[in-house]
Amino acid sequence: MATTAAVGAVATGAFTALLPTPDDGTTTTAAADAPYDTVLASESSALEPAAAALGAPAPAAFTPVEPVLAEVAADAHLARLVQGAELAELHAQQVERERIAALIEAGGVNGWIAEALQILELPQSLAPSVKKIVMNESGGNPRAINNWDSNARRGTPSQGLMQTIPSTYRAYVHPEMEGRPITDPVANLTAGIRYMIDQYGMDTLRAGGRSSSSGGYLGY
């Protein structure tokens, strides 16, 4: 065939490789007896530098699918745990708010103490300690008046749940409670609690008041 004569034919088993014929008319038969894979490899090696010069993209790094899926699953599990903890905390806060609201609505010593602590922005965990002081000072009677101690003899008897004298009450009552009488249970509590923290510290309030060496209650 004319085409075969022009470019030269190289037989490689069942495959014939067509190679260009030089200008002098001789037929190039380089690696004519080489298998097809050898010829293809030589041609591919010649093309690789050209492809690189043209900016052919490098093969992308392969990331196994299973580790990625495991990491995504772990992140999702952690997110669910965090969300669950946050929801539990919100629920606990709501339950506590409802408990305090119910106490305040019911009134009485426990309700008055809950309201006073809420106004003072103090933890409700102090309620048992404050109640201990109240019961020792007034027996829980908001109208209790001490007519026999030194304050009474000076004409300034201690009054109310926390048994504060008038001057102490006026100095320490919470601003929201100003104008209320000294026998107002919540107002009296705010004054007595603030006075105790100021004079003796939070630890004394948390301990339920001052105590003697034998552990007995001491007034303040």
Question: How does this structure look, described?
Answer:
- The structure is a single chain.
- With 220 residues, the protein is mainly α.
- Among the domains are: 8-47, no CATH class; 126-218.
- It is built from nine helices and four strands.
- It has helices at 2-7, 36-53, 65-106, 108-119, 127-137, 150-153, 166-172, 185-200, 202-206; strands at residues 9-12, 15-18, 210-211, 217-218.
- It has a two-stranded antiparallel sheet. A two-stranded antiparallel ribbon has the order 3-4.
- A hairpin with a 2-residue loop joins β1 (9-12) and β2 (15-18).
- α3 crosses α4 and α4 (108-119) packs across α8 (185-200).
- The chain is elongated and about 90 Å long.
- It starts with a helix and ends with a strand.
- The model is unreliable at 1-15 (pLDDT under 50).
Topology:
Layout: H1 2-7, E1 9-12, E2 15-18, H2 36-53, H3 65-106, H4 108-119, H5 127-137, H6 150-153, H7 166-172, H8 185-200, H9 202-206, E3 210-211, E4 217-218
Antiparallel strand pairs: 1-2, 3-4
